[in-house]
């Protein structure tokens, strides 16, 4: 089963990214055949920047993404959103790459489930 997560919110300040990654990790743990894909849009693109200092009382999103990627998950970032936030030329965390709306559209069509956070 192919499961696509579309994330829109910044990595910190709300728990949407955290909860999406918790679910992605649980799906990988309990359903080994599940193919997990994560597409970051809007302010969520900043979650792909490496070496962020975790605010007091928060979880580390980069570690959570690494866990998803290490189990075969894919992470792509909206290029237009990254460019709009001035991060399109910055180094991204390992396993993440800049992508396009065409790729997102293809992932939507290919997915069995699409979850938006």
Tell me the layout of helices and strands.
Blueprint: E1 2-7, H1 16-30, E2 35-40, H2 61-70, E3 74-78, H3 79-84, E4 96-99, H4 101-110, E5 113-116
Parallel strand pairs: 1-2, 1-5, 2-3, 3-4
Helix pairs in contact: 1-2
Task: Describe it.
It is a single chain. The chain is an alpha/beta fold and 117 residues long. It has one domain: 3-Layer(aba) Sandwich (Hypothetical Protein Ychn, Chain: A), CATH 3.40.1260.10. Helix content is 35%, strand content 21%. Strand 3 (74-78), helix 3 (79-84) and strand 4 form a beta-alpha-beta unit. The longest helix has 15 residues, at 16-30. The two termini are 19 Å apart.
Overall SS class: alpha/beta
Provide the spatial order of strands within the biggest beta sheet. 4-3-2-1-5
- In total, the number of domains comes to 1
Count the helices. How many?
Answer: 4
The CATH topology assignment is Hypothetical Protein Ychn, Chain: A
Quick gist of this model?
The chain is of the alpha/beta class and 117 residues long.
Features:
Hypothetical Protein Ychn, Chain: A; 117 residues; 5-stranded parallel β-sheet; alpha/beta
